[in-house]
Each structure stands twice: as C-alpha cells, then as structure tokens.
Amino acid sequence: TQLLEQSPQFLSIQEGENLTVYCNSSSVFSSLQWYRQEPGEGPVLLVTVVTGGEVKKLKRLTFQFGDARKDSSLHITAAQPGDTGLYLCAGARTSGTYKYIFGTGTRLKVLA
Amino acid sequence: DARVTQTPRDKVTEMGQEVTMRCQPILGHNTVFWYRQTMMQGLELLAYFRNRAPLDDSGMPKDRFSAEMPDATLATLKIQPSEPRDSAVYFCASGLEGTYYGYTFGSGTRLTVV
After folding, report:
1. Among A18, A110, B12, B80, which is most buried by a count of CB atoms within 10 Å?
2. Gap between the Cα atoms of B8 and B6, Å rounded
C-alpha cells in the first residue's frame, strides 16, 4: 500500500506553461518534503513544510501543505526546460521522527 | 559543498554473489538511510540509523540483506546471496535529526544482478 500518491504520474508541457503536481494521502503527516531528482543522481531537497495550510515559495515554485496535513501541492509558474525531472514528495508520519516515506513521483518534461 | 559519497557507482554481478555497497555520510550528520529505487516501486526505505544504531530495518529482506555502520564515516549495505530481483539503484542519504534540512542523498549505486 502506497501511503503517498502523486498525480499526474507523467507530465509533458511547453516552456512557459504553468503546472501543478499533487501529493495525496489518507494519513496525517507531521511534515512533508518535496524533492527533485535528475537522471543518474539522487533526489535533492526543494522544501519542507510543517504547518497545516503553510505556503512556501522558491522562485517560480510554490508549495502548499493542506490544512489537514494529508496532502500537498507544487505549482510551477512559467516552466523552463531546467525544471525537467522527477518530483517526489516525502512525508513523516510521527512528529520528531526523521523517517520519511516517499511518494510515487511525477515525471515532468518541459519542452523548449 | 558537503556531499554523501557512494561506491561503487555501478555494479554488475552474477546471481548468488555477495555485493557490498558503501556510503560515506556527511560529517556531523547523525542519521543515515538506505533506499532502493526501481521503476515499479519507486523509493523504498530499507534501513535507518541514528548515531550509528539501527532504528528501523523493517523494509529490508532480512535473510539476504544486512546494513551496518562500523564507524561514523562509513555505512555498508550487503546482499548475500544476490538475486536478479535485487537489481535497482541503491541510495544512501544522511541528515541531522532535529532539523528540517532534509536528507542529502548520494548519487546512488546502480546494481545489476544477472
């Protein structure tokens, strides 16, 4: 059973378009992280959200943690080819634990 | 930039052989994780160490997999005997518990068992 489901699984868009990736669960998480992974490399942390309803911005990326801390979204404005990669969410179910379970991933391709 | 170093980068071995993967975590990090990534299953947590003590290895097939931290600068993941279904990319990650800085992942070991 996958605790964290991401949608869509695959996304191919043109440069300049906006997109939103979703991370959903029936479980409550004490904190949630988003990573980006490029081919041949390990995931790289983008952001951590810990408070229900929290919104964080990282340049053209906006991350939101759901009010009930069961879901999260990642919105990219004016996507660029450099945004291409596998986007992963990861949640920790217990406060104080550092054990994160990863979602199924969204593979994004931005075409020039 | 501090980084997690994993060796070897690629490993091809025959079924039944022993495989050892090594990881040098970032100096000062007190947690180390081993993950396995496949197209079908995504990233699966295999083992989790805090201050070199194993906290959770419930994701690991115990009959053939073992994970250890002989010292603070080295973590190992061993498979004996290896099977074709073990083919995957194995990642080590380290972090500092009590912060939300997240994990730093290594570049992985791509294991192919033929």
Report:
1. A110
2. 6
CB contact under 8 A, A42 and B93: yes
Exposure b/e, A7-37, CB count within 10 A at least 16 = b? eeeebebeeeeebebbbbbeeebebbbbbbb
* Cα B88–Cα A9–Cα B37 angle in degrees, nearest 5: 15
**Tens of pLDDT along A56-71?**
999 999 999 999 999 9
| Strand pairing class (A106-111; A10-14) | parallel
Percentages (nearest 5) of helix, strand, coil residues in chain B = 5, 55, 45
The Cα B95–Cα A30 span in angstroms is: 17
Whole-angstrom distance, CA of residue A28 vs CA of residue A71: 8
**Which of B100, B107, B109, B110 to substitute to test the interface with A, most A CBs within 10 Å?**
B100
Which one of A40, A99, A105 has the shortest CB-CB distance to B42?
A105
Instruction: Map residue B65 onto helix, strand or coil.
Output: strand
